[in-house]
Design brief:
Distance between the termini: 5 Å
Radius of gyration: 13 Å
Number of helices: 3
Structural class: alpha+beta
Low-confidence stretches: none
Number of strands: 5
């Protein structure tokens, strides 16, 4: 199963560009293609929510490469959520991230 995260923002038009670029950069660091999928956004209470799904291959590379060193969390799913959130933040994004499913 591929890790699934929900992102939320009040500024979707700007954030989606930053998120796509950050995930493309992460793909390059992992040396893979098709490492993520962004699902269709939906709006609720002034926020735009959209899901990103990380491929199993990219998740394994991130886990085994040491990229998550220092990521907070007791379980691997929490660490991955914190890693992805921090990675997006370092690329200029201000989205909020929530783990939905981590297989």
């Amino acid at each position: 199963m591929n890790p699934l995260f929900q992102l939320s923002t009040r500024n979707y038009d700007i954030e989606i560009i930053l998120v796509k670029q950050a995930l493309e950069d992460l793909e390059k660091e992992c040396d893979i293609q098709n490492g993520y999928k962004i699902e269709k956004p939906f709006e609720k209470f002034g926020w735009t929510f959209f899901n990103i799904q990380i491929s199993q291959e990219m998740a394994e590379i991130i886990e085994k490469s040491g990229m998550m060193k220092g990521a907070l969390g007791y379980k691997i799913g929490e660490q991955m959520t914190n890693f992805i959130g921090h990675y997006l933040e370092t690329k200029g994004s201000n989205v909020r991230i929530k783990k939905i499913d981590y297989g």
